Amino acid sequence: MQDGYLNMELLRFTTAGSVDDGKSTLIGRLLYDSKSIFEDQMEAVQASSQKKGLAHVDLSLLTDGLKAEREQGITIDVAYRYFATPKRKFIIADTPGHIQYTRNMVTGASTANLALILVDARKGILEQTCRHSFIASLLKIPHLIVCVNKMDLVDYQEERYNEIVAAYKSFASKLEITDVHFVPISALNGDNVVDKSANMPWYQGSTLLYLLETIHIGSDHNHIDCRFPVQQVIRPHKTKFHDFRGYAGRISGGIFKKGDEVMVLPSGFTSKIKSIQVGEKLIEEAFAPMSVTMTLEDEIDISRGDMIVRSNNQPQNGQDIDVMLCWFNNKAYVPGAKFHLKHTSNDARAIIKEINYKVDINTLHRIEDDKTLNMNDICRVKIRATKPLLFDSYRKNRNTGSIILVDEATNETVAAGMIV
Amino acid sequence: MTKYNLTHLEELEAESIFILREVAAQFENPAILFSGGKDSILVTYLAYKAFYPANIPFPLVHIDTGHNFQETLDYRDDLVKRLGAKLIVGSVEESIKQGKAVEEKGFNASRNALQTVTLLDTIEQHKFDAAIGGARRDEEKARAKERFFSHRDEFGQWDPKNQRPELWNLFNGRKNMGEHFRVFPISNWTEMDVWQYIKKENIPLPNLYFTHERMVIERDGGLLADSPHLNKRDTEVPFKQIVRFRTIGDMTCTGAVLSQANSLDEIIQEVASSRQTERGTRADDKRSETAMEDRKKLGYF
């Protein structure tokens, strides 16, 4: 068992919630029960809680690291937390749930395998539950766990739990969520978090931690459509590797094997994969999300921004893209503004040609007559780039279907988009 | 585990290599900040893997407080030779002589905070536009909020409340003249991940990380290595102890821990059962609740 860590998987999940729905308590419990909180951290949190005059230990102080956050008792930014069990390592992107922080939720969701959504058993489905679920579905987080929390405050009633599950399912039918699980918990008392609850014998399902440890994440990456955006060309200029010309990058989709026929885009030249390696180690095949270096049989002019694919399965190629765009900047979009667009390893300049509609993220209604883009708005837009992009729909591939827009004057990342 | 599934260490490695290549592609003149500690050794090793068979396209920059362990310096020089890398040393001693930095006084005097002056000077002098560091988010609460690509203004300052959002694999390294970036490729690694990976890849480390006999003094419940750089009280009499270091920094503020761990397996076991964070041995973090955030805003690592 000594080297069991050599078989551990990595699961990234995001949590969202407001101050009082028990999110911090839940994270605190996961960290505490998995022995990921150290004595000196606990002592520091205890001391801070006392200084603030609190009767209990405020576990949110573990995640709220910045001075301004601790002073104001709010979470400003995405906080990353880590814990591990013998089966998996977990990265939590803990995002503030308040309405103006859509931007942080989107950021945390962009790399997550799973979203944890907390519902207060007394209050049921609220606007913010809908908001979080919508963002999880928009960002195509593959798995969702809805924790019905504070079951202790509704006497651990099965009826109340079933009511909330039914209400959630009816709402979620409007969203694209494929894999959703429900767990009745009490984060405060630990019911069904790590250990099965003796208070809810009617619940036959798994505990939260068991779900986190066992949900199948092996299919979260696209292993069908081969996409290799070239990040860099490696030319050693050494006698021993005189003719070495390696294409370095991270596989965005599919499985590439040595000997495969491949096509380089946008040039359209074809060749065969001569070798694939990670560092010094030569490997037979590579798949998403590996970072590798490839060489090809033929000398082809390839540079950063090009993409290596299979000729019978090519991405779309064009200057016009339809995008669901989330605006991040506190300065609103100025019509006609030009942006720097980043997509895979490619860069272009771009403009927003048209704003089609805005989504009310609480009701999911389309607002057609509002053509502004303000902080935290999510809009369907048409974007035109100065040069063709090699892209897939975000639904098909999160890596080749995502873009960011950078303000040309301030260099700030002002928006993130998912290609429709 | 299915065939097309990475382990957690493989996925972390893939992420870090991607970031390092992104730095090489997006910046003109990047450098690795090398302290001689396991985290910067790991970053250097990952850079070796990222660009193999080419050499690492970044020089190693060491901010030398003049209070380093000799073992660290020997290891550094040997590594540079093995990799064929370029080494640039920024000297805190020199900054003090030039009057840019002022030596702290008293028993807890340390050159830790002075490193910021030398670091920013070195960055300016060599016109580095990206400084790659081995900081991890699990180390410290202010570091938990760091980006992979962390923007610094023309004074080298960090504005934690106004950071660029980072999504997917898209990293924005655009900046104006005079500004630079700090880049943290191993942000998502924990102390345990680092040790497990070092074991898996068999990466050589300075002997300081393994158990050895050393003259130490006891201060504030911790152990500090005895050295001519340490201002000792009369009551602080050095004594011999069996110790190792969990982190390696300046001799005056890096605490030793009692340990018999002689191999990576033993260290991994020790880390797994430890009830203190590794920076719990660092006097520099204990100065105030927001000591790290305060230093980082000014341009610390």
Automatic annotation (TrEMBL), chain A:
<dbReference type="GO" id="GO:0004781">
    <property type="term" value="F:sulfate adenylyltransferase (ATP) activity"/>
</dbReference>
<dbReference type="InterPro" id="IPR000795">
    <property type="entry name" value="T_Tr_GTP-bd_dom"/>
</dbReference>
<feature type="domain" description="Tr-type G">
    <location>
        <begin position="8"/>
        <end position="221"/>
    </location>
</feature>
<protein>
    <recommendedName>
        <fullName>sulfate adenylyltransferase</fullName>
        <ecNumber>2.7.7.4</ecNumber>
    </recommendedName>
</protein>
<dbReference type="InterPro" id="IPR050100">
    <property type="entry name" value="TRAFAC_GTPase_members"/>
</dbReference>
<dbReference type="InterPro" id="IPR054696">
    <property type="entry name" value="GTP-eEF1A_C"/>
</dbReference>
<keyword id="KW-0342">GTP-binding</keyword>
<dbReference type="Pfam" id="PF22594">
    <property type="entry name" value="GTP-eEF1A_C"/>
</dbReference>
<dbReference type="InterPro" id="IPR011779">
    <property type="entry name" value="SO4_adenylTrfase_lsu"/>
</dbReference>
<dbReference type="Pfam" id="PF00009">
    <property type="entry name" value="GTP_EFTU"/>
</dbReference>
<dbReference type="InterPro" id="IPR009001">
    <property type="entry name" value="Transl_elong_EF1A/Init_IF2_C"/>
</dbReference>
<keyword id="KW-0808">Transferase</keyword>
<dbReference type="InterPro" id="IPR009000">
    <property type="entry name" value="Transl_B-barrel_sf"/>
</dbReference>
<keyword id="KW-0548">Nucleotidyltransferase</keyword>
<dbReference type="InterPro" id="IPR027417">
    <property type="entry name" value="P-loop_NTPase"/>
</dbReference>
<dbReference type="InterPro" id="IPR044138">
    <property type="entry name" value="CysN_II"/>
</dbReference>
<dbReference type="InterPro" id="IPR044139">
    <property type="entry name" value="CysN_NoDQ_III"/>
</dbReference>
<keyword id="KW-0067">ATP-binding</keyword>
<dbReference type="InterPro" id="IPR041757">
    <property type="entry name" value="CysN_GTP-bd"/>
</dbReference>
<dbReference type="InterPro" id="IPR031157">
    <property type="entry name" value="G_TR_CS"/>
</dbReference>
<keyword id="KW-0547">Nucleotide-binding</keyword>
TrEMBL record, chain B:
<keyword id="KW-0547">Nucleotide-binding</keyword>
<keyword id="KW-0548">Nucleotidyltransferase</keyword>
<dbReference type="GO" id="GO:0004781">
    <property type="term" value="F:sulfate adenylyltransferase (ATP) activity"/>
</dbReference>
<dbReference type="InterPro" id="IPR011784">
    <property type="entry name" value="SO4_adenylTrfase_ssu"/>
</dbReference>
<dbReference type="InterPro" id="IPR002500">
    <property type="entry name" value="PAPS_reduct_dom"/>
</dbReference>
<dbReference type="InterPro" id="IPR050128">
    <property type="entry name" value="Sulfate_adenylyltrnsfr_sub2"/>
</dbReference>
<keyword id="KW-0808">Transferase</keyword>
<comment type="similarity">
    <text>Belongs to the PAPS reductase family. CysD subfamily.</text>
</comment>
<feature type="region of interest" description="Disordered">
    <location>
        <begin position="272"/>
        <end position="301"/>
    </location>
</feature>
<dbReference type="InterPro" id="IPR014729">
    <property type="entry name" value="Rossmann-like_a/b/a_fold"/>
</dbReference>
<feature type="domain" description="Phosphoadenosine phosphosulphate reductase">
    <location>
        <begin position="30"/>
        <end position="255"/>
    </location>
</feature>
<protein>
    <recommendedName>
        <fullName>Sulfate adenylyltransferase subunit 2</fullName>
        <ecNumber>2.7.7.4</ecNumber>
    </recommendedName>
</protein>
<feature type="compositionally biased region" description="Basic and acidic residues">
    <location>
        <begin position="276"/>
        <end position="301"/>
    </location>
</feature>
<dbReference type="Pfam" id="PF01507">
    <property type="entry name" value="PAPS_reduct"/>
</dbReference>
<keyword id="KW-0067">ATP-binding</keyword>
